[in-house]
Amino acid sequence: MSDQSLFAGKRILVTGATGLIGRALVPRLLETGAELRTTSTSPASRGFPHHARAVEHMVGDLTDRRFADSAAAGMDGMIHLAGRRGSVGIQTTQAATMLGENALICMNALEAARRAGVARIVYTSTVSVYPPMDLYREDLAWSANPHPADQYAAWAKRLAEKLIEAYKVQYGLDNIAIVRPVNTFGPYDNFDPKTALVVPALIGRALSGQNPFVVWGDGTAVRDFLYVDDLVDGILLAYERGLGQGPINLGSGRGYSIREVVEAVLAGAGLRPELRWDMSKPAGEARKVADITRARRILGFEPRIGLAEGIRRTIAWYRHSAR
Question: Counting Cβ atoms within 10 Å, is residue 221 exposed (0-12), middle (13-18) or buried (19+)?
Answer without folding.
Answer: buried
